Amino acid sequence: MHTPRRSPRRQCRGTPFAALTRVVLCFAFVAAAAVTSSGSHAASPAALRILSTTPALGAADVPGKALLSVTFDRPMVSLNDVGVANAHVPAQLLPRAPGHGEWITTKAWVYQLTQDLALGTRYQVTVSDGFTAQDGSRLPGPNTFTFTTMTPSVSAVVPVDGTQF
Fold first, then answer.
1. Spans of all domains in the chain
2. What φ, ψ does residue 127 adopt, rounded to 5°?
3. Could you say which of 11, 77, 139, 165 would form a disulfide bridge with 81 (CB–CB 3.0 to 4.6 Å)?
4. Among 145, 109, 110, 144, which Cα is nearest to 129's?
5. How far from the centroid of its chain's Cα atoms is residue 34's Cα?
6. What distance, in Å, lies between the first and last C-alpha atoms of the chain?
7. Nearest-CA neighbor of 88 among 46, 123, 124, 130?
8. What is the DSSP letter of 116?
9. Contact assessment for residue 63 and residue 149, using Cβ atoms and an 8 Å cutoff
């Protein structure tokens, strides 16, 4: 009767060499996990960025009923905070205007005005660099944008020059 030959791989299964191999692999796995979790060699997230603002940076003649928004390049809040008034407010409007901030997605925050903005006024919106995204990233510094609301002006004069009564 013919006995099947074992492959060389199977022959070292119970040998001290096989045990040593398993120990070395386990040690390498544990060491790699420890280095990654310590953060010393883990990649830090890229700097947080603002993708867009409304009104745009430096906008002029913004209507008094403007919508203010800031959109980031990554999730800033959890889904539980979406739609909750004044949850994790990332920005400040100066001069102040009555309203409330709200996350409409995990990346987009809006400030809903309860009254029109004052006309002919320069507003400044500052997004704090201390505000942290869900992945731990932050803005490289405070981000400020300004806009100016419409200036009241004379649109017509009646009666027109030269009109007689």
1. 10-38, 50-149
2. -100, 120
3. 77
4. 144
5. 29
6. 131
7. 130
8. P
9. yes
CA distance 147 to 126: 12
Instruction: Give 69-122 pLDDT, tens digit per residue.
Output: 999 999 999 999 999 988 899 999 999 999 999 999 999 999 999 999 999 999
State the Cα angle at 66 between 126 and 64, rounded to 5°: 105
Q: What number of helices (H) and strands (E) belong to the chain? A: 2, 8
- The CATH architecture assigned to 50-149 reads Sandwich (2.60)
Higher pLDDT, 59 or 33: 59
Burial class of 115 by CB neighbour count within 10 A (0 to 12, 13 to 18, 19+): exposed
